[in-house]
Amino acid sequence: GVIAQELKEVYPNAVFGPEETDPDLHYEIVAKDPMTVSQRKLIPLLVKSSQDLQEQINELKKRIKKLESKI
Fold this sequence. Notes:
6% strand, single chain, two-stranded antiparallel sheet, 3 helices, 2 strands, mainly alpha
């Protein structure tokens, strides 16, 4: 799963729940109303990541092919 508190630092639009204002009360707040992650809002981020990875794969395939042709 995804930890909402960690995701909030990178992609806050996908996280819903209470704001931490007092670290001493954090446990009480989270116990009553935990942070949640909207999986639907993660879809564009995941699609973009997948596209970026595919570009890297294609570039690496080209490099491998070029190196193999030198052997």
